[in-house]
Amino acid sequence: MSSHPIPAPADPVPTPGAPPPDVLRCAYLDLQVTDLAASGAFYADVIGLVVTAEGPGWVALRTFDEFIHHNLLLREGPVAATAAFAFRVRSPEDVDRAEAFYRELDCPVERRREGFAPGVGDAVRVQDPLGFPYEFFHAVEHVERLAWAYDRHGPGALVRLDHFNQVTPDVPRAVAFMEDLGFRVTEDIQDTAGTVYAAWLRRKPTVHDTALTGGAGPALHHVAFATHEKHNILAICDRLGALRQSDRIERGPGRHGVSNAFYLYLRDPDGHRVEIYTQDYYTGDPDNPVVTWDVHDNQRRDFWGNPVVPSWYTQATPVLDLGGRPVALTQRRDDSELEVTIGADGFSYTRPDEDAPMPSWKQGEYKLGHQL
User: Fold this and answer.
1) What's residue 305's pLDDT?
2) Comparing C-alpha atoms, which of 157, 148, 146 is closest to residue 67?
3) Which of 13, 61, 119, 172 could form a disulfide with 9 if both were Cys (CB 3.0 to 4.6 A apart)?
4) Alpha helices in the chain (DSSP H)
5) In the sheet that 109-112 helps form, which strands lie side by side, from edge to edge?
6) Residue closest to 179 by CA, chosen among 352, 11, 349, 12
């Protein structure tokens, strides 16, 4: 691990003259699902989010430590897709700043004084230059914070929305634009040639509020909810096993190298990817050092060296434009992380140093055939 600046993009998004909004944190995901009953049951009854409110065609859910109306809004629709990545801003004036910032870029912008979602007030939604649908809001209905309601906490209690992860074809271009918006990089993955495969960016003082993963985009890679401790994640695994829903586990549990967090990846009834996440680290100082991982370091994605299933690299959720239509994908031109780190058999890991091969006693562990 070291620190290497992310190269400047070849085709940067122009930097607006208007000041950016002061983003506090990722706040909620507006997610379109095809079967509201099935999805609502998964998020409320299986992984334990709290239902704040529901109505015809929608349900709003939150984590136990949350005091704003919701962290996840499920809406029933014709396709499984992401309608908006929603960020809370510091003041009502920052909603005005968001509108001016994106109008200067000539992006599609819609302002609703009554809000776009139940429990959320004046807000602006945009389709940013990278194709992602964002919402910026300040006014919100407060609800009861259930941090002290231990009689309602299951052993796998989800306590916060931690981050989004977005798939985009040109990571340096996306990083430069997010930095214009006030985000700061905490970690990234590169190779010795300077190709950037992913980056983690934050507003709150954790590893990230969103991550940028290189691939065909714009798309949602996953939304992540935090638990207090890693044993809470193990309890979720046990619950999935007891419910005979262990096939919802896509990857993990494990320990990330990037972020140092303990993790579990699940797929909901529509295939939307959900991460359960805990125990990353503080990043709030202005001189917080950036950590750069080599793409061939097998501990970057899993600190224990376990392989990443190919679906984790190749599958993601489409995003919608402001009219509710799926946004066309742009393919990545740079090398893909999957191609440079997975061997010819489709599952074994490559090593950058031919003089330091995998130990003989470990060879075969990464082969799909051996696992079967």
Assistant:
1) 84
2) 146
3) 172
4) 36-41, 92-104, 171-180, 230-242, 310-314, 337-341, 368-371
5) 50-55, 58-62, 72-76, 23-33, 81-89, 133-137, 123-127, 109-112
6) 12
3-state secondary structure of 12: coil
User: Do residues 281 and 207 lie in contact, with contact meaning Cβ atoms separated by under 8 Å?
Assistant: yes
Average pLDDT for residues 137-150, to the nearest whole number? 98
What CA–CA distances, in Å, run from 230 to 216, 226, 235? 32, 10, 9
Q: Does residue 209 contact residue 164 with C-beta atoms inside 8 Å?
A: yes
Cα–Cα nearest to 192, from 364, 371, 352, 29: 352
CA dist., res. 114 & res. 32, Å (int)? 20
Distance of CA 181 to the CA centre of its chain: 17
Percent of all residues in the chain with a pLDDT value above 70, rounded to a whole number = 92
DSSP codes joined into one string, 226-260: E-SSHHHHHHHHHHHHHTT-GGGEEEEEEE-STT-
* 291 neighbors 186 (Cβ within 8 angstroms): yes
Contacts of 129 (CB under 8 A, 6+ apart): 13, 105, 107, 177
Q: How far is CA 296 from the centre of its chain?
A: 22
Largest CA distance in the chain: 64
82 DSSP β-pair partners: 31, 319
In the block, which residue shows the tokens 């990230």? Answer: 208
Pick the closest to residue 180 from 21, 10, 6 (CA basis): 21
DSSP 330: B
